[in-house]
Design goal:
Layout: E1 5-11, H1 16-29, E2 32-40, H2 51-80, E3 86-93, H3 95-106, E4 111-114, H4 116-120, H5 122-133, E5 139-142, E6 155-159, H6 164-172, H7 174-179, E7 182-188, H8 203-210, E8 216-221, H9 228-238, E9 243-247, E10 250-253, E11 256-259, H10 261-269, E12 274-277
Parallel strand pairs: 1-2, 1-4, 2-3, 4-5, 6-7, 6-9, 7-8, 9-12
Antiparallel strand pairs: 5-12, 10-11
């Protein structure tokens, strides 16, 4: 399956660079680009501060809505010059509900893009990941770099651990893996059991990819007491990867999303695009 619909949630205050990256990637994929311009509403006032506070809150909301409408028009004008198939939607939501609101849009996309400007706002990015990745079946491409992600990566590294999330990420990344110059299946201290990795760790996923016409190199690494995220980051440098494919892990608690350790660390420290599946 190729990417036919790409969703790009973009913050209302930081949109120019992420919009250019989304356009470049969608053009390369020959895909429809759906841009979701997002503004986060201020929380309602709590307690009795009187009419003055309520009026200030309403004025702030009106200002936010006006800014959102202006941003939507700016995006539409830019996309009208691109030649792409596109649509533009707006979303004015509170932080607590942003994940669900974004998830409802991600249901109808093949891939969700998060660009470098969105990544600057960690709260915004976490809401996008919570919604698009963990509340929809759609893969997410997180690109913290200044360059657009490419449909023809030179070198791809797969972080493989024989878990469902990693397998789903590999399946969703197939269009990129098929176009890659080289693909490294990377495992760190794999357990050699019949129920997990088999007697030859990495052989099963390598055979699966080979049936799709993808030749892979299996790299089995020793953790040497280092953290998994640190090992993955270093090996990505060693193989000159310009895309990392991995499963995402986490859980929700009291509506506040908590990422699994490696997922959180990679989100905070990544220096290359990451395709996450869950």
């Amino acid at each position: 399956m190729n990417f036919k619909t790409i969703l790009a949630p973009i913050g209302v205050n930081l949109l120019e660079k992420d919009l250019r990256q989304a356009v470049a990637f969608s053009e390369a994929a020959q895909a429809h680009l759906s841009v979701l311009v997002v503004a986060m509403a201020p929380p309602p006032p709590i307690g009795g501060y009187g009419e003055l506070v309520s009026t200030a809150w309403l004025e702030e909301r009106e200002s936010d809505l006006a800014k959102l409408a202006g941003a939507v028009e700016t995006v539409k004008a830019s996309l009208s010059r691109s030649g792409l198939s596109y649509d533009v939607q707006d979303l004015y939501t509170e932080y607590a509900w942003a994940g669900e609101d974004i998830a409802s849009r991600a249901l109808y996309a093949d891939l969700v893009l998060v660009g470098a400007q969105a990544a600057v706002d960690s709260q915004f990015t976490k809401r996008v990941i919570d919604g698009a990745l963990f509340q929809s079946p759609t893969a997410l491409l997180f690109n913290p770099t200044d360059r657009p992600a490419t449909m023809t990566p030179r070198s791809v590294m797969i972080a493989w651990n024989s878990r469902m999330e990693a397998a789903r990420a590999v399946q969703q990344a197939l269009p990129l893996l098929k176009a890659a110059g080289e693909v490294h299946v990377t495992m760190i201290d794999p357990t050699e059991t019949a129920f997990v990795n088999g007697e030859e760790p990495g052989a099963d996923v390598a055979a699966y990819l080979a049936r799709h016409g993808i030749a892979v190199l299996v790299d089995v690494l020793s953790g040497q007491g280092k953290g998994v995220a640190q090992m993955l980051a270093q090996h990505a440098v060693d193989v000159q990867a310009n895309l990392l494919v991995m499963g995402a892990y986490g859980h929700s608690r009291l509506r506040e999303f908590v990422f699994g350790g490696v997922t959180r660390t990679m989100l905070e420290t990544a220096r290359l695009p990451i395709l996450w599946g869950h």
